[in-house]
Amino acid sequence: MPKDTTVRIMNEKSIALALTRISHEIIERNKGTDNIVIIGIRTRGAILAERLAENLSKIGKVALPVGVIDITLYRDDVQDKLDQPVVQKTDLLFDIVDKVVVLVDDVIYTGRTIRAALDAIIDFGRPRAIQLAVLIDRGHRELPIGPDFIGKVVPTSRNERVEVHLIEQDGVDEVIIDRSGRGGV
User: Cα–Cα distance between 84 and 4 in angstroms, integer?
Assistant: First the structure.
C-alpha cells in the first residue's frame, strides 16, 4: 500500500486566522495604516495581499492601495529555468515614494524571490520602508532576508516542498507539505 507523502498543515480557517493576526501586527508596528501600501508578488502573494488589504481596511476603516509585481525578469535564475520567460503584468497604480510598503508572498524559502521583488520595487521609487509579510516561513535562507510578519513557521527539509493553495487560484484554501522528495518552494 503506497504511503501518502503529503501533510496538510493549514486549512481555510487557520489561513484566515493567520492573515487576521498579521493584519493586526502590521497596524501595531506602524501605529495605524497611514502611508501604508500593500504589494503582492504574483501569483499567490498577490492574492494574499488582497486579503490582507481587505482585513486592514476593515480594522483601520480606510482602503489601502494594493498592487501586484511580477519578478520574472528580476530573478537571478531566469536564464537557468526558462527558455522564454513568461512575464506577467506588474500593476502599481500608486506612488510608493516615502510610503511603507508591505510586500506579501506565500512562502519564504531561500530569500531569492524576495531579493528579486525588492529590486523590482526600488525601480518604482524609494519607499520609506519595506516590510515583508509571508504566510509560511520554511527556513533555509541563502540570503540575509527575513520576514517581519509570519503566518506560520514550518521547519522543513530541503527535499520537502511547501504548497500554498488558495481558493482564487486553486479552488481550496490549504497549505500542504509534500514529502515525496521533489524539493523546492
Answer: 35
